Amino acid sequence: MRALVRTLILFAVPAALLAAAFALVFYSAALPPSLAGLTVYAPYILFALGAGLAVGYDRGRALFALVTLVVAYAAQQYWLQQGLEGLPARAVYAALTVFVPLDLAVLAMLPERGTFNRHGALRLAVIAAQVLLTVWVVTAGAAGIADWAYQQFLDPAPFSAGRIPQLGTAVIGLAVIAAMAASVVTRSPLGAAFAGAIAAFSIAAHVPTASVTYSIFIAAAELMVAIAVLQDSFRAA
Length: 237
Description:
single chain, mainly alpha, 77% helix
């Protein structure tokens, strides 16, 4: 029973922030005009806050998770707001639904190695390679790769999630399970935050053209990671 309580406490903050994000989406229209800009800039502000904490406490996994999330938000702002028609938007959307949950799950399972060292450089290089691959698909007009990502691998009835490709749906599901398992095994608040961030991103990905909803859930994911840095640091102390 005690182990179950500790596990529930581990996921309390991500669950509370997910619930808050749903409530904020519902009441976002009631925000005063003076705060309307927060729905656009909040992910960037929270990225800066979280990155500062991650660097200050030498939490490389958190830093690169935040980089992944802010890249996903910037990509939505630039390519996805107008819809998913056309190769650039389709390729970017498929890449986000695969790479973002995959990166967060891998970071949840990797040991902490700090920020400014060869481990950090390697992890940043992987994110950069994913971005470059996506840019290449778009600029080279490699429609075949994008079409493959949208392929129906199984009967769509039991294995579809809105606009998200089946490949992305499978990666998201496996990533959540892997991140949750890693957090339970290591008792790591960061692992729990990464699992919550995957869930928040998957909700945002269901509505890629709804900028307010996308912004709120990406911001919630970033806040989960920032709070987990503090939790992890206090636990270590």
